Amino acid sequence: MSLWCAFATERQNYVYDTSSNRILAVEPSVIGVLHGEQAHQAPGERCETDQAAREAVAAARSEGLLRQLPYQIRSFPRDEMHGQIAGLLAHGPDQLVLNVTEACNLRCAYCTYSGAYPHHRSHSKRQMPTAVAHAAVTWYLNHPRRQQFTIGFYGGEPLLRLPLLRALVAQARASVGERVHFSVTTNGTLIDEDAARFLIEADFGLTISLDGPEAIHDRYRRTGDGRGTFGTVWRAVNLLRRLDERYFRERVQFNVVLAPPVDLDALDAFFAAHPDIFRGSNVMTAPLNPQPSTVAGRLTGETDPSLAQAQRTQLWQHFEDDLAAGARERRALPWAQLSRDFVPLHQREMSSLPETIPTHGQCLPGARKCFVDTDGTFFMCERVAPAWPIGSVEEGFAVDRILAVVDAYDRFFAAHCGSCWAVRLCAKCVNSVRISDALDPTRRQAFCDNQRRYWRGLLTRYCGAREQRDDAFAWAQEVEIR
């Protein structure tokens, strides 16, 4: 494997150089030299290529580019961990997420908690006791070095515990005033006028699950007795917009689960038909949970590969048309599907890598987010629970458990990333490669192969767009990476 990636647009040949994080415009003969080096590894073998191209490669290497020796990869070097852990204990997590209930008023066919995922819990009547919830908030707000706090609510369906949410918002506001912000992800079916006014007044960041037009949404997002929920959710959406246009525009977003059979054309048409509701900045898309499951047997069919490719190509065309035009009003679905990874690509730091480098993706457990389960146990996030607890409301963070997680992560990736050209681009958290509480080599290999394919395609499209308009990604410079 090499520490560079060659690719080409219709106009130009390029090499992405891992050592510098730069994209280099090159002649085809240079790529021939690099590929020749890969193909001819035996001592004394030479590739018959253009002398000028060999000299160009040698000159680049004299500047520290096109490195041939692998790096040593450490995500969490032990000599740096003391300071990181001390910072975590002093500042607490960026966000506290409370699993206020495992109950839900819907029975979505693909849900992680539907019983189809053997390594996850199923829906239950378990709820977070009021005392545990208040204790968790007290623990979080008792980090005096933190200037801003964010509290999120999770379920099940968190709005089933609306009285508790009201009490916790009041507690937090009384403690730190406007320095605390709130967020919740909801299926939207319980948002009546009373709930809507509470969410607006507390300025919640609100994520509503909405899978598209009625026929698509109601295919899987149903009540326990089989009734579709699109009409109820759509009324809630319009209620929020009617009550406070500013709040709706700035604080409401939508999560779309792409469950097979996926029809991107129908989704694109639906979002484009409602520009007053959907914008390129307030729609997110998500695939099904990739953990092992039997969920496929609950779905109504598979996505036609050829149709999916044609529809995705059309989405790319819409996206690239917007980039070329410098469009301010962006089509919601193409931007939801395609814009996210261009942000870190455009913002990447073009600097030389040291011999020991951090990999990307895996957070220090507890730093970005601390997920509190119904019994008060801490996890690094809701996607990982119930694997690898890292503390509790009673004890706070358990440093030894946090170190055990990062040490396992380091060992798991140490021999696989140092010679990979995509190491500075790919984002790999433990959830990408785990099965239950074990890190799985088969998932790792599939993940790495997919990342290299994806990033090569993204680099190609990035350069192609900038050939048409150099400032095509100016918008990405202003996006905060989390």
Give the C-alpha Rg: 24 Å
Q: Give the CA-CA distance, first to last residue.
A: 30 Å
Structural class: alpha/beta
Predict the CATH topology of one domain: TIM Barrel
Let me know the CATH homologous superfamily of one domain. Aldolase class I
| Global geometry | globular
**Fraction of residues in H or I helices:** 25-40%
Put simply, the count of helices is 15
Mean pLDDT: 93
Strand content: 5-15%
Side-by-side strand order of the widest sheet? 10-9-8-7-6-5-12-13-14-15
CATH architecture of one domain: Alpha-Beta Barrel
Low-confidence stretches: 41-45
Please give the largest β-sheet: 10 strands, mixed
At the first level of CATH, the class of one domain is Alpha Beta
Number of strands: 17
Folded structure, characterized:
This protein has helices at 28-39, 51-62, 78-91, 130-141, 162-176, 193-201, 214-220, 230-243, 245-251, 264-272, 305-325, 332-338, 342-347, 399-417, 441-468, and strands spanning 4-8, 13-17, 22-26, 72-73, 95-99, 149-154, 180-186, 205-209, 252-258, 283-287, 356-357, 369-372, 377-379, 391-392, 396-397, 434-435, 438-439. The chain is an alpha/beta fold and 482 residues long. A 10-stranded mixed sheet has the order 10-9-8-7-6-5-12-13-14-15. It has a 3-stranded antiparallel sheet with strand order 1-2-3. Helix 4 packs parallel to helix 5 (162-176). The longest helix is centred in the last third of the chain and has 28 residues, at 441-468. It starts with a strand and ends in a 14-residue tail after the last helix. Mean pLDDT is 93; it is low at 41-45.
